[in-house]
């Protein structure tokens, strides 16, 4: 699943936007290697370019220049169809605003990636239940997102991200919309998943204490550039 | 994504905005209903016209004449005279033996004075072959058709019956007497008379006394003797029955053809043929009607008859023209019917474009979860197709109801006008299936732009959308 022990590698990656006459360098010549099984935090203030870097890593966006390598392939060279498959099978995503589909029940939300991956119908129920059990929501299968607390919604989103058993989990400010206690429970869950499933986690956050406590490595981003890269002393620390 | 998953998601999405999607579907239904109603009217009218015309015998009948007779009162061309064959009993038998020929009969009609309850009336009498019994021309008859092909019975046209009595139906069962001019061969021309072929009686559908029904005893001459015959009135026809060219319609008093032949009534062309000394002294018919098994067989039969050396006339070209007319008529109706569908198409485009705006974030989520551009496109496509399918089914139902209403309304009007009922509407299976397929096709075409637009959405932008 990895290339030379790396789950992801950014090689002189830039993402520039033209806004009128101004050129916005959201990500500017960034090189970064994410090791397999690592819990990496991309730390930075708002507008630093950390979310853009994450979008490039998940294949939602394409770099202006440079290369993102995953599974030995440059995402830039992948077709739309291959990128969709990469997002479906290799990467799981969790967002700050949960992004559950409000009209669907939790079970249906979690089943959605299985539908997209064309998983056999008879296996789906078991996998949905397994994923929701993992985030302690096994009893809430038929509830709709609006009937759940913020923390529960984020756990459901986590179950949805895990249901296709990806090797990399990308989380964009997963605690940003939660109170500190709930946020901490989500971080504990993330760490548990990373340790039990051996997943690679890339988490974008602007909360340094949270990153220091749970991530094994912190990459600090400012003005589209990496200004710091250091391991932490967290429990799930670097391997 | 697999087809059933696409279908489930599409149906779920359609249910979520049920009011808007139902209204859009209703728009498609109205469009299809208008199209179905228009085309059903066209098809119904075409079927009605075909039915009426095929009943008239105009399209399965070939009129056979000697070539020289086609020149009418003018001078016959030398070439025609040389190639012409006499339309005699031998020819009649030969015609009857041709493949696909059902029957061959002469057109017999003559002026007569009718006496009914002591009063005289002048009218045209026409002979009707027994085959007209099942032809549909006499479907609306009051009373009955002739009891047998040789019965001394008469059927009256309603207008003539009205002349005879204020209560036309009361004349049924009563007798009338027919005064007519019998053509009798002169003693001086016994040689010519003896040539009248007795063998002619052997032919299929032949007359009982064919020699007397022939129009010319040329070479000799004939005298006109007034005769009288009593006939019982058995029926009255409301509509004018037709039986090929010249038809029975021009006769107001209809009698069995075999009876007409035995009357030896003088025919309109007798004198002309006598003066012209046509047919080389042999007796001949002025014309014969050849009834063919189906309108589609008319052409080969007509060709075969021409090869025999006769002139023919059929309404084959007129049938083709009728088909072209109805094709254009249907096209025009379809265009008018499609206008409503065009509006409905815009409705689908509008609904789906609105859905893209509303579901922008959802599209972003789907893409983040691994949906390809094709998945998103197909999802919107299926939604459009489902609206088209439901709209098509509902539209066909509505169109059928409109058709029923139009038929009821038309028949009420026809009843008031004292006309027989008619089916002016027809919804054949091909139209039902075609209309539903068309609705789905049009909806898919309408969904193409919105679906492509949804598929092209940038997932990062879409996820940012609130």
List keywords for this structure.
heterodimer, A: 239 residues, alpha/beta, Rossmann fold, six-stranded mixed beta sheet, 10 strands, 34% helix, B: 466 residues, alpha+beta, 2 domains, four-stranded antiparallel beta sheet, elongated
Describe this structure in words.
- The complex is a heterodimer of chains A (239) and B (466).
- Chain A is α/β, with parallel strands linked by helices and 239 residues long.
- Chain A contains 7 helices and 10 strands.
- In chain A, strands 6-7-8-3-9-10 form a 6-stranded mixed beta sheet, sandwiched between helices.
- The two termini of chain A are 17 Å apart.
- By secondary structure, chain B is an alpha+beta fold.
- Chain B folds into 2 domains: 3-54 and 322-464, no CATH class; 61-311, no CATH class.
- Chain B has a 6-stranded mixed beta barrel with strand order 3-4-9-6-8-7. In chain B, strands 2-10-1-11 form a 4-stranded antiparallel beta sheet, covered by helices on one side.
- Chain B is elongated and about 115 Å long.
- The chains are: A alpha/beta (239), B alpha+beta (466).
- The A-B interface holds A 55, 58, 60-61, 80-81, 84-85, 87-89, 93, 95, 99, 101, 103-104, 112-113, 115-118, 160, 164 and B 1-2, 5, 9, 12, 16, 361-362, 364-375, 459-460, 463.
């Amino acid at each position: 699943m990895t290339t030379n022990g790396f789950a992801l590698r950014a090689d002189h990656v830039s993402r520039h936007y033209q806004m009128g006459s101004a050129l916005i360098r959201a990500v500017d010549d960034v090189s970064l290697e994410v090791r397999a099984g690592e819990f990496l935090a991309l730390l930075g203030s708002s507008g630093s370019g950390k979310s853009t870097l994450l979008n490039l890593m998940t294949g939602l966006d394409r770099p202006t220049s440079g290369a993102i390598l995953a599974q030995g392939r440059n995402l830039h060279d992948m077709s739309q169809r291959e990128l969709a498959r990469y997002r479906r099978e290799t990467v799981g995503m969790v967002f700050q605003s949960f992004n559950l589909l409000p009209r669907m029940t939790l079970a249906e939300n979690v089943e959605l990636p299985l539908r997209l991956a064309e998983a056999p119908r008879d296996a789906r129920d078991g996998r949905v239940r397994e994923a929701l059990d993992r985030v302690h929501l096994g009893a809430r299968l038929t509830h709709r997102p609006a009937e759940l607390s913020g923390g529960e919604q984020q756990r459901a989103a986590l179950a949805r991200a895990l249901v296709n058993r990806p090797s990399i989990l990308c989380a964009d400010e997963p605690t940003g919309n939660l109170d500190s206690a709930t946020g901490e429970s989500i971080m504990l869950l993330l760490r548990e998943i990373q340790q039990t499933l051996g997943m690679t986690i890339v988490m974008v956050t602007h909360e340094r204490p949270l990153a220091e406590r749970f991530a094994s490595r912190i990459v600090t981003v400012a003005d589209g550039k990496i200004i710091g890269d250091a391991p932490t002393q967290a429990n799930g620390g670097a391997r | 994504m697999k087809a059933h998953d696409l279908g489930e998601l599409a149906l779920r999405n359609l249910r979520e905005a049920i009011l808007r999607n139902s209204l859009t579907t209703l728009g498609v239904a109205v469009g299809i209903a208008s199209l179905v109603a228009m085309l059903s009217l066209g098809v119904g009218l075409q079927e009605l016209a075909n039915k009426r015309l095929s009943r008239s015998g105009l399209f399965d009948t070939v009129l056979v004449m000697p070539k020289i007779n086609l020149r009418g009162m003018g001078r016959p061309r030398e070439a025609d005279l040389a190639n012409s064959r006499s339309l005699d009993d031998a020819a009649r038998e030969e015609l009857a033996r041709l493949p696909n020929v059902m029957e061959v009969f002469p057109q017999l009609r003559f002026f007569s004075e009718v006496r009914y309850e002591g009063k005289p009336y002048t009218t045209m009498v026409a002979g009707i072959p027994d085959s007209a019994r099942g032809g549909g021309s006499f479907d609306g008859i009051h009373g009955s058709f002739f009891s047998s092909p040789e019965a001394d019975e008469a059927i009256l046209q309603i207008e003539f019956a009205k002349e005879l009595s204020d209560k036309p139906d009361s004349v049924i069962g009563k007798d009338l007497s027919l005064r007519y001019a019998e053509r009798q061969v002169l003693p001086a021309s016994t040689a010519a008379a003896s040539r009248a072929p007795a063998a002619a009686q052997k032919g299929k559908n032949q007359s009982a006394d064919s020699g007397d029904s022939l129009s010319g005893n040329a070479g000799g001459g004939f005298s006109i003797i007034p005769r009288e015959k009593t006939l019982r009135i058995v029926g009255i026809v409301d509509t004018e029955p037709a039986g090929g060219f010249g038809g029975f319609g021009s006769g107001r008093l209809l009698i069995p053809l075999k009876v007409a032949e035995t009357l030896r009534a003088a025919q309109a062309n007798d004198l002309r043929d006598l003066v012209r000394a046509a047919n080389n002294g042999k007796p001949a018919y002025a014309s014969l009607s050849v009834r063919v098994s189906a309108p589609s067989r008319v052409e080969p039969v007509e060709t075969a008859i021409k090869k025999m050396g006769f002139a023919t006339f059929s309404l084959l070209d007129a049938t083709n023209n009728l088909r072209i007319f109805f094709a254009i008529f249907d096209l025009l109706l379809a265009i008018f019917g499609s206008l409503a569908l065009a509006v409905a198409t815009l409705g689908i485009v509008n609904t789906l474009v609105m859905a893209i705006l509303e579901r922008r974030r959802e599209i972003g989520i789907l893409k983040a979860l691994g949906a390809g551009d094709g998945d998103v496109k197909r999802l919107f496509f299926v939604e459009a197709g489902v609206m088209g399918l439901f709209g098509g089914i509902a539209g066909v139902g509505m169109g059928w109801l409109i058709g029923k209403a139009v038929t009821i309304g038309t028949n009420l009007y026809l009843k008031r006008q004292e006309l027989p009922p008619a089916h002016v509407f027809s919804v054949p299976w091909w139209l039902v299936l075609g209309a539903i397929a068309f609705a789905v096709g049009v909806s898919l075409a309408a969904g193409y732009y919105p679906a492509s637009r949804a598929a092209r959405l940038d997932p990062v932008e879409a996820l940012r959308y609130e």
